Amino acid sequence: MGRDDNDSSPQMGTALVHSMLEQRQDQAAGGRLVVNGGQPCRACPLADCEGLRQPPPDVRDWIAAFRHGDMRFARGEQVYAQATRPRFLYTVLSGVLMRSRLLEDGRRQIINFMFPGDFIGLQAALDAEMGHAVEAMTNVTLCTFVRERFFDLVAQQPRLSFDLTWLAAHEEAALEEHLVSLGQRNARERMAALAVFLVQRGIDTGIAPDGVLTLTVTQGQIAEMLGLSLVHTNRTLQALRRIGLVDWTLTSIRIPDIAAARAFAKIDGSVFSSRPYI
Amino acid sequence: MGRDDNDSSPQMGTALVHSMLEQRQDQAAGGRLVVNGGQPCRACPLADCEGLRQPPPDVRDWIAAFRHGDMRFARGEQVYAQATRPRFLYTVLSGVLMRSRLLEDGRRQIINFMFPGDFIGLQAALDAEMGHAVEAMTNVTLCTFVRERFFDLVAQQPRLSFDLTWLAAHEEAALEEHLVSLGQRNARERMAALAVFLVQRGIDTGIAPDGVLTLTVTQGQIAEMLGLSLVHTNRTLQALRRIGLVDWTLTSIRIPDIAAARAFAKIDGSVFSSRPYI
DNA sequence: GTGCTGCTATGTCAAATGACAGGGTTGGTT
DNA sequence: AACCAACCCTGTCATTTGACATAGCAGCAC
């Protein structure tokens, strides 16, 4: 292994490090707010989503008053930088994002991906620093809330508070699954598990209706998610393609036999009830 | 690697598998309830803990009425089995536990450790199956709550609801850190990071006052936490001892220079405010 | 004592994974 | 066209890590 124990050799191409630093700069996202005064929640794109449990009308009205506006980010832009305490919290309205954590020496671990309906910034809401960065993987639109008013939500809307806890607990469960991957599965199993995870979330959130998730994930990102080197990621991906287990290109993921892929990756089929959202 | 890609070779000593199966049987924990009618919360052992934020008196009274009793488990006993939906939720009053997740073929991943003040069973509270098992690493005493009444807590006590979300978010942050370990750190860094994590939690919860955590962790458990083989865990542990970075025996963990260990493991020193508890 | 069990330690070899170096493709820009 | 930036791919070799086999040692029951 080249990460020699403690001398912190460069570890990533300078190009990558460079781009990371650039991203760090346009972190603020300050001026870009687009308040969507018009039809806030009545036209919420999440209302059509099969996989989401819709809030009752009165709660929806409350959210409409609570929410602040919309915001858009382009693919590659950073929504949160690590170790900041931002002003806004978000719900994903459309698009996919990822959260990642950076080590001082440049190594980066992608923690998880966020799909429509997911809530962003819970750690920030609780007066803590963000332990990770959040970056858009596609063009995204986010529903924004003001952090300071977060406690109003908890105090006034036990239903939403419950939902928020629900989301946090299920996010935790997803991280557990990723931990199992990194700790116990070998490279091919990990990659299969990740593919199944992504496609399943795509199906559940309605953005991969026919079982094909259109999402551009570079092999470098896969490597950073799975804790593998870029080269080994490439080879493993090719191996899975050769077997016919997954059909994963730069821009889309397709799994011919998802049950077979689950079995291969040793994923126990826990069925999730439909997710709430805020 | 011996985990050859998909043939699921035995992978663990038969003795270990055997003991796991045994543990699976005494899972119910049904009849062992010890209702502590006397002085429930006034004498709460957590009240003395420096690292915990104490609830205000009225909330404490509410908890006293909400809580159900005490329960004790001996080292090695299982509190929750995986994929069950238990009747009780717990707060750790004393002792240390671990949560782990089992794969069908016997591989096991330890997810995290739980110290006094931690809340157990949030997933269960939200009507989901437990995705993991919970096992006592020492003799423990737990404060029990009835799962069905969980929504009362959310509805009636926004403060506690907030605290619960706080705990969930910070548990998530801990899992993120473990993910970074498994994904980006090599064996020695992982082990140092784990040692620092455990000792720090021990200090914060007052059970390692002099910086020495008395807790018996076998090398097999370390291996299952860090995603390493038992043999490699042994060798790595010896290497760390040789360097003088950690002094980790079967029954205790001591870190001569915790700052050095942090630097070695590349842990960024995020300072946590004091944790709430319920 | 003898056996047994759980844990730690070591030696040897094999497999998984990473490092390094280089080439190829695509797409955008000037 | 020439250049450049991302990204994907391949070959070769080094390192990390795992598998297997075995031994030692403490505790404990009988």
UniProtKB/TrEMBL annotation, chains A, B:
Superkingdom of the organism of origin: Bacteria
Database matches in PROSITE patterns: HTH_CRP_2
A Pfam family recorded for this sequence: HTH_Crp_2
InterPro entries (UniProt xref): cNMP-bd_dom, cNMP-bd_dom_sf, Env_Response_Regulators, HTH_CRP, RmlC-like_jellyroll, WH-like_DNA-bd_sf, WH_DNA-bd_sf
Alphabetical keyword list: DNA-binding, Transcription, Transcription regulation
Coiled-coil region list: none
Gene Ontology cellular-component terms listed: cytosol
Every HTH crp-type domain range: 185-259
GO function terms (MF aspect): DNA binding; DNA-binding transcription factor activity
PANTHER family named in the record: CRP FAMILY TRANSCRIPTIONAL REGULATORY PROTEIN, DNA-BINDING TRANSCRIPTIONAL DUAL REGULATOR CRP
Protein name: CRP-like cAMP-binding protein
The organism of origin for this protein: Novosphingobium taihuense
